[in-house]
Amino acid sequence: MKTFTNLLKVEFKRIFSNGVLMAIFFAAPIGYGIIFGYVYQQAKVLDLPIVIVDQDQSPTTDMIIDAFVDNEGLLVKDVRLTPGNLLEEMPLEQYAAVVTLPVGFEGDVLQKRHPEIRVDLNMANILNANTASNNINTVLMTLNAGMEIDGLKKQGMHPDQAKASYETFKINFNKLYNSAGNYVNFMLPGILAAIMQQIIFLAVALAFSRDFEDGYFANLVAKKKSALYLIFLKATPFLIMLPFIWFVIAMYFPYFKITADIFNFPMLVLTLLLTLASMMIGMLFSVAIPNQLKATELLMVISTPAFILSGFTWPTEAIPGWITGVAQFIPVTQFLSGFRRIAFYGGDLASIASETKILLGITVVAFIAMLLLLQFKVNKTAKKQTVVVEG
């Protein structure tokens, strides 16, 4: 036990003496959490800039313009008579859309000639384009219904009958689980989980690869020739420090008013499994690749696309099967699937049985592979030391 304690002290010294590791392990999750939290703090996309080309300049088009001004999702940056050179302006001003009200619009409306309003969307940013399109459609459909009902009333129809004649049926949308459409609730948990997987990968990847590079591994083998002992020694500092990082991450939820339910036992189990699976993969790479730079570079190849491939923001049904098959063995994929079941759907341990099984499988397979490979390297190093002593 005394030997283990002394070696553990050395491990902590080596970890804290590595500025890059400290930046990855502590600064990255804390700093990124704050940055991304404030990025999505507004919760909704508001004030998307649009241009209105009013070629009719009539009371009806004035009413339409006023309706656009009152919409919180849109910001009327300019109202003009002619379009000008909007193709050149749009990239510079980042207009989300251009709404064109044609010449003779009011007259065509009064004569029931069904004029067409043209909407040009800036599809360079699909999220902005979709949001702008929804808001523009809401404004125009509301006005369209109002104009139709007013027309029927002018023909002498009773207001209630006019409304009933236009509305064949009603639609009532009931939004569940994130009723406000809050982007903090939607995006931040997934991003934080991906960041945590990445920092665990990169931090643990230096555990053995650094020892191989600077020769410290031979000192460890001289003390203990058990791969299991050395794995436990290397994992202990991270198992002590990671709960602190996870606690900081958890505090972002109340701070940014994220409504997800994360303070429960199933989430604790899921978080523990993500941590262990990520640690085992990182340590396996650390043992297999005795070079810090190469080990971290290869793990970056895995972790960089992990969030996109997880299906958290883009439906897995739209991703080719062979890609989703590979993504299933990236820990954060299973974590985010289970996270949604627990945090938003109120699930229990039974609801995340498949995710926990896969995470346990990843942990066990990576651990066994690392144990066998490390024991081989321990035996090889010990044999060299014996030859040197005998020589």
Name its key features.
single chain, 391 residues, mainly alpha, abc type-2 transporter like fold, 2 domains, 68% helix, elongated
What report would you give on this structure?
With 391 residues, the chain is mostly helical. Helices cover 68% and strands 6% of the residues. It has 2 domains: 240 residues; 119 residues, abc type-2 transporter like domain (abc type-2 transporter like fold, 3-Layer(aba) Sandwich). Strands 2-1-3-4 form a 4-stranded mixed beta sheet, covered by helices on one side. The radius of gyration is 30 Å and the shape is elongated. The mean pLDDT is 86. InterPro entries: ABC-2_transporter_component, ABC2_TM, ABC2_TM_bact-type. One of its GO terms (molecular function) is ABC-type transporter activity. It is found in: Cell membrane. It comes from Gelidibacter maritimus.
> What would you call the structural class?
mainly alpha
Side-by-side strand order of the widest sheet: 2-1-3-4
Number of helices: 17
Span from first to last CA? Answer: 32 Å
Gross morphology:
elongated
Radius of gyration: 30 Å
Low-confidence stretches: none
Number of domains: 2
Count of extended strands = 4
SSE string, helices as H and strands as E = HHEHEHEHEHHHHHHHHHHHH
What does the average pLDDT come to? 86
- Which percent range describes the beta-strand content? 5-15%
Percent helix, as a range, is: 55-70%
Largest sheet: 4 strands, mixed
Protein name: ABC transporter permease
Membrane topology: Multi-pass membrane protein
Organism: Gelidibacter maritimus
Family: Belongs to the ABC-2 integral membrane protein family.
